[in-house]
Specification:
This protein is mostly helical. It is about 70% helix and about 0% strand. It has one domain (about 20-210). The termini are far apart.
Length: about 220
Amino acid sequence: MDISFEHLLINEFKVTRIHGINAFDELIKAQNLLPSYHNLLETAKNESHEEWMQNAGTTGSEIRFLEEQAFRHLSKAVILYQSSMEAIVALAESHHEGLATQLRDIKGFKNRWENALTYFDEPTKEFQKYESEFYKELRIPLTHLTPNRQDRLNKIKLISYKKVYNGFRNGWWSFLRLQRGLELTGDNFEDNWRLICERGLNHKSFMEDHPDNIE
């Protein structure tokens, strides 16, 4: 058995959108593991030696299992979201002649995004956080273990739901700034973030790291 997509409309917009949707779905799956995970941590904290012996260390095994599941979801979320960010700037370039001219000789993910935002006189602060904290610290270690293999493995061990969530949010703010430059969205970034999170993601997580008010 097989399936064919020859009659399905597949274009650069659909591919970009699918990467983004799949990334959010993986982040939501990781988020949904958190209550059970923290309940198990609390159980393990209060578990007596006798209880631990009776359940043969089951609580610890369940904790490790949830950690494995969360790591899988977060890893996929990081890789898929970065794919969408790369596709977004390419899609914008293909639909705006002036931007295409601006980016014609620009190489590299960071340089292309920053030049695109600057072209539209949009701030780059959220993108800079995305690039330094998400792209460099999460995505590159996951997809390029060499060189500096041990250093990158150490970074992978530090991946967390919070880091991935904040990366998504900074990336989304960057996307909205680019959309605003293309005159495809208005100024209410907060409402836009809330709407995209209606798929099942808490739009108010880690408010201490929330992007500043839009200028």
